[in-house]
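Q: Predict the assembly, please.
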Amino acid sequence: MTPEELSVPAIECERLTHRYGDLIAVDDLNLRIERGEMFGLLGPNGAGKTTTIRVVNTLVPVQEGRIRVFGMDVMRRAMDVRSNLGYVPQQLSVEGALTGRQNVMWFARLYDVPRRERRERVAEALATMGLSDVADRLVSTYSGGMVRRLELAQALVNYPSLLILDEPTIGLDPMARDSVWEHVSALRTRLGMTVLLTTHYMEEADTLCDRVGLMHHGRLQAVGSPDELKARLGPEASLEDVFRHYAGADLSGNVTEQGGLRNVRQSRSGR
Amino acid sequence: MSDSLAPAAEPLARPLVQAPRGWHQASALIRRVWTFCIVEIQKLSHDPIELGTRAIQPALWMLIFGQTFSRLRAIPTGQVSYLAFLAPGIVAQSALFISIFYGIMIIWDRDAGILSKLMVTPSPRAALIAGKAFSAGVRAVSQVVVIVIIALLMGVAINLNPFKLLGVVVATVLGAAFFSCLSMIIAGIVRVRDRLMGIGQAITMPLFFASNALYPIDIMPAWLRVISRINPLSYQVDALRGLMVGTPANLLLDFAVLVVAAALGIWGAAVALERLVR
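A: Predicted assembly structure:
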């Protein structure tokens, strides 16, 4: 890879706007995420985090604005962008009627992991996530935390340059949450990939992310490293305080000044 | 800025991957379809009971409906018995009944987030759909085996020539592919499971009755004959009947219609898929 290529940001959003009918889910978003960064998008439900992720990962077409992933336009070079992604959506989404190993093997095939390396890479991904012992059990017997780790194994089997995690710890008990983050951090240090994640657990973002973006009502209210953002407010400030300061709302979405919480999830599923 | 944030320098140098280009796209497409087929077969192999329970309905059609209508001798079936006439119709029917549920399955995959994950892998939409369509075919072929055995036990002379049997498998897979795609297209239009359930049930029986599965087209009223002639199920039944029990059939036309229908179905469902995740 040439030095020019290395200086290209992992993700670059310019004036991204996305609507569901009359509802503006993402409003004129500008965002630049560097290679190797662990970047957290924070905000309450309905802030536009998931929509942003679904446009960046090519699932939903860009309506307005422009997104480049490693310099590649997501609309014009969707297949190239996809070849370099690992994606874990919000829901626990694996095939329960298959074993863990079959689930990971499936994705290894979809990403064209060479035939002779496949078996080994799948075993490696499962081992990294601590699932070797249960790899040949049907996934319908897994716990929530195990399913999440299996999804990470699926998302990592192609050695992605960009890992996208949408609320990876939602619905997990604290132990499972810690275990997921331990695995993600360990992998990231080892593989040096870029990670874009969304969460509304502030403590998690604070300890894990290099930089965070605070999102509310489809707009990016502030961007910076957690320490930077906290320092602007004072020595005792928490990330939660920072959010309240910039968004005028707390993280449950309860607005302290103006506006109201919108939920696009309903329109998204077509109801 | 990037320098201070970058952790290890060595892994960062991992080159970006390019999606297959040029004619490699074609081979990638075939590999993807095959991958989706493997997964569907693996799923089936973990749940053999499903195939068993599915066999009950066609068995009942053959044993009860078939035997009773044989006694009536009300339906002109040419030189073959009514049971022989019916067996291929029941093969097509079970393929239809299995396939029409695929729209609900794809909505289920969507709601479970599996579809989103698959759609951001470097797989063409058409490959995903073709894999699903093929798996409907695999399920349907398992019913062929059951119905052929029942028919043989009931004394129907099924042609066991391996080439004809291969033709039966191909016709069954193509028909299942078309109807599963039709169901997935409707899924893309209505987008929610409850609505699709109703529509699925509402169209299955008309498709079945407006075909030559239970009775020949010649005895239908004129308006039904028209519908029957545009119903791909009729062409599937015609091919199956010709291959299984040797009734006169226009195999060339039958297979042409089935291939075109399946191709159009896959294309249409691939378009519908975009709507489904939006």
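The radius of gyration of chain B is 22 Å. Chain B has one domain: 50-69+79-277.
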